[in-house]
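seq as requested:
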Amino acid sequence: MEKFENVFERMDYILEKEGMTIANLSKKSGINDQTLRGIYSRRSKPGYDFIVKIVNSIEWVDANWLVMGESSGCSSENINDRLLSIIESQQRTIENLTSKIEILQ
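struct tokens:
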């Protein structure tokens, strides 16, 4: 994940990366348009409900990254990498067991 100074810069990045407008994000997240505009204009600070709605509506956004600027390692890319590693490991196990069964027959 990119490094940014504060939550406002990270929010700006979300819009940019998603290619969305505030109105689009409002519809997708269920956050009131005026609430979003207040946050994006830096008149308001995002609260808990806001953070939860953003994290739930944008797949790649990690709550720890959004709030603190640090990744918790649970992004969809990391999860996909871990799942792929598990699948490869299981495939090797299947191949090893298959070869042992063939030897026993």
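The mean pLDDT is 86.
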